[in-house]
Specification:
The complex is a heterodimer of chains A (355) and B (179). Chain A is an alpha/beta fold. Chain A is built from twelve helices and 14 strands. Chain A folds into two domains: 222 residues, Rossmann fold (3-Layer(aba) Sandwich), CATH 3.40.50; 110 residues, Rossmann fold, CATH 3.40.50. Chain B is 36% helix and 21% strand. Chain B has a six-stranded mixed β-sheet, with helices on both faces. Classes of the chains: A alpha/beta (355), B alpha/beta (179).
Chain lengths: 355, 179
């Protein structure tokens, strides 16, 4: 086990990726995730890896496609507007069943928006970031420790299911420093039976491609892919329950807003309100079962998000609209204070604020 | 050790994020729970800059400091902005070379250190942040003084190791000014 160090979230992602055996980073700078690229630029040349600042986000994601085709662990990182540009390439990765890591340290939008934190790419990430029918695994860290842990996990899951994975963070998580124990280094990245590495005239050709002009074949490929997605949904959902044992109100929140909500929950508990939280760690697959179970227990849900209520819809779907789901939202780079969340808790508890 | 929520604020370039990092590393070496959150973006380059540091015995929830127990300010706009947010009984540390006005609140303790002037007098230009930080640490005990040297070694990059002594001297000067 390594010692506890102090790192920015963005740096923790970069170091954890290297420890996970990633030796190929392609990116293009954008606030608030540039520290990922800066860290890679410093470190990769010293360990025989590739750091390449591409001419654009689109170029970077296609370089990831190339590196991933050879079975190597490859990644790119960006922030919201840059991720939008990468979506074509992510779709091609999905269509070619290639594992890769895409890091999105979200900022306010739409358009160029601002540079302050946001969670407004929730739809983009969870509905399949690009054209066509597909999903990527979406992981939402809520601490610098999770930034590190989920980076390695993202590579593992991506390879296990041969699909891209996205680490969905936000500007606060990327910029803040916290103590972190980095994971142990991965000694050998698993060999791939599908990687294009040259036949050496000794084996059959392998082909990585997303094009199939036969509707029969293409349908079969899509159906096969969705069988895999079913397995991901059944087996890989991750969440954290916080003070849910006796909860009558359930907050659902991820990333930075889950941390703000934690303060509000502790304050509400001091006033005798039984409130807890289910914090999705995977946003796709969404922890539907945990939420559906909670629907039998609580009378109200509150979804705290840095968007206009994108995850709230997934909560309503997961609990089949059995209980009301209140929204507590800030957007544009604004972050709710614990008092604002507390206000929403009071409302759900049917109490006047402050009483 | 008390739990403290700290805002350090001023102009970009005054070394405020660095001061916050020294506290954060000192907290790390003490095995405490902590977070350090900077302002980021264009405001870092000449505009107002601030960082939020939380030192606690319990896991840190939100890293955003709403109501600081300690406020350290190095320009007037920052004092204007944050004075009202300090908890009653909290402490405000003012670089009185740069901020002409006094703290208006009666329910907080104000400490005035002419840090920028002291830095100039002692040939330590650019270290006013560390002088003021020395005063903060001496008055609040927010981190142990014993661990400061180790913390500073962690924060100062290897290629600038020669700056260690002057930084320590600045911290000492601030401490002595308020003792």
């Amino acid at each position: 086990m390594q010692e506890k160090v102090l790192m920015k979230g963005n740096e923790a992602i970069a170091e954890a990726a290297i420890l996970a055996g990633c030796r190929h980073y392609f990116g293009y700078p954008i606030t608030p995730q540039t520290e990922v690229a800066a860290y890679m630029a410093k470190k990769m040349p010293k360990i025989g890896g590739t750091f390449l600042q591409a001419e654009s986000e689109i170029a970077a994601i296609n370089m990831v496609y190339g590196a991933a085709s050879t079975g190597k662990r490859a990644m790119t990182s960006s922030s919201s507007p840059g991720i939008a540009l990468k979506c074509e390439g992510i779709s091609y990765l999905a269509g070619s069943d290639l594992p890769a890591l895409i890091v999105n340290v979200q900022r306010g939008g739409p358009g160029l928006g601002g540079i302050q934190p946001s969670q407004s790419d929730y739809y983009l990430a969870t509905r399949g970031p690009g054209h066509g029918d597909f999903h990527v695994i979406v992981l939402a860290p809520s601490s610098v420790q999770e930034m590190a842990d989920l980076t390695g996990k993202a590579f593992e899951l991506a390879e296990k299911y041969r699909m891209p994975a996205m680490l969905l963070a936000d500007g606060t998580m990327g910029q803040m420093m916290e103590p972190v124990v980095l994971p142990d280094p991965v000694e050998t990245v698993p060999e791939k039976t599908w990687a294009v590495t040259g036949t050496g005239c000794a084996r059959e050709h392998r082909i990585i491609n997303s094009l199939d002009l036969s509707p029969v074949n293409l349908e079969r490929l899509n159906l096969e892919r969705f069988k895999r997605y079913e397995k991901v949904e059944a087996e890989e959902a991750m969440w954290e329950s916080f003070l849910m044992e006796d909860a009558e109100i359930c907050i659902v929140s991820c990333g930075i807003t889950a941390r703000v909500s934690r303060n509000a929950i502790v304050a509400a508990r001091e006033k005798g309100i039984r409130v807890g939280m289910i914090r999705p760690i995977t946003l796709w697959p969404f922890p539907k079962k945990a939420l559906l179970n909670a629907a039998d227990q609580v009378h109200d849900f509150i979804c705290v998000e840095l968007n206009m209520g994108q995850m709230a819809e997934d909560v309503e779907l997961a609990i089949r609209c059995r209980k009301p789901v209140a929204r507590c939202n800030r957007v544009g780079g604004m972050i709710p204070s614990p008092d604002e969340v507390l206000e929403a808790i009071y409302k759900a508890a049917g109490k006047e604020a402050g009483k | 050790m008390k739990n403290n929520e700290i805002i350090i604020a001023g102009f970009g370039g005054q070394g405020l994020l660095f001061s916050g990092k020294v506290l954060a590393y000192a907290g790390l070496l003490e095995g405490r729970e902590l977070s350090w959150l900077p302002s980021y973006g264009p405001e870092m380059r000449g505009g107002t800059a601030n960082c939020n540091v939380i030192l606690s015995d319990r896991p840190v929830g939100s890293p955003i400091v709403q109501h600081p127990t300690i406020l350290m300010v190095m320009n007037t706009p920052s004092l204007d902005k944050y004075e009202s947010t300090v908890v009653p009984g909290g402490m405000i540390f003012v670089d009185s070379s740069l901020i002409a006005r006094k703290v208006q609140r009666q329910d907080v303790t104000a400490v005035y250190v002419p840090a920028t002037q002291m830095a100039a007098d002692m040939n330590m230009t650019g270290l006013a942040n560390m002088i003021l930080l020395g005063a903060v640490i001496a008055k609040t005990g927010c981190v142990n003084e014993a661990g400061l040297a180790d913390a500073l070694h962690k924060v100062i990059p290897a290629r600038k190791a020669d700056l260690f002594d002057s930084n320590m001297a600045a911290i000492r000067a601030g401490k002595e000014y308020v003792s």
